[in-house]
């Protein structure tokens, strides 16, 4: 776990003012997230946690249930492009159960693009 977080933390493209890499295990993380949500809410802020997962952890029938964490958002890495069942025949991502169609976003200054669905 520590080595993985060091690798993520060393990636220059990750905006350090917006992304924080957790280097411990599940149980301390859950306690920390609950405390952080409570404290930031009291100060008038809204914090949202997201998981970054690979396609091997993505269940199309219930994409947000990536146990042991259950967060309101997930990021699926581009390795999902290598899983044919995640894409329709025209190349667009399949629609997840309970979500709408995907919207593609392209940032001219970025190396890639991303999609979102609600």
Q: How many DSSP-defined strands?
A: 6
Protein structure class: alpha+beta
> H/E series, N to C?
HHEEEEEE
Strand content is 15-25%
Distance N to C terminus: 31 Å
Q: Which term fits the overall shape?
A: globular
Helicity range of the residues? 10-25%
Specify the biggest β-sheet.
Answer: 2 strands, parallel
Count of alpha/pi helices:
2
Low-confidence stretches: none
Average pLDDT metric: 76
For this structure, the quaternary state is single chain
What topology, given as strand order, has the largest sheet?
1-4
Rg from Cα: 16 Å
Structural account:
The chain has helices at 2-9, 26-42, and strands spanning 50-53, 65-66, 69-70, 73-76, 103-106, 113-116. It is an alpha+beta fold. A two-stranded parallel ribbon has the order 1-4. Strand 2 (65-66) and strand 3 (69-70) form a beta hairpin. It starts with a helix and ends with a strand.
Question: What is shown here, in short?
Answer:
The chain is an alpha+beta fold.
Key features of this structure:
two-stranded parallel sheet
Write the layout of secondary structure elements.
Blueprint (H helix, E strand, L loop, with lengths): L1 H8 L16 H17 L7 E4 L11 E2 L2 E2 L2 E4 L26 E4 L6 E4 L2
Parallel strand pairs: 1-4
Antiparallel strand pairs: 2-3, 5-6
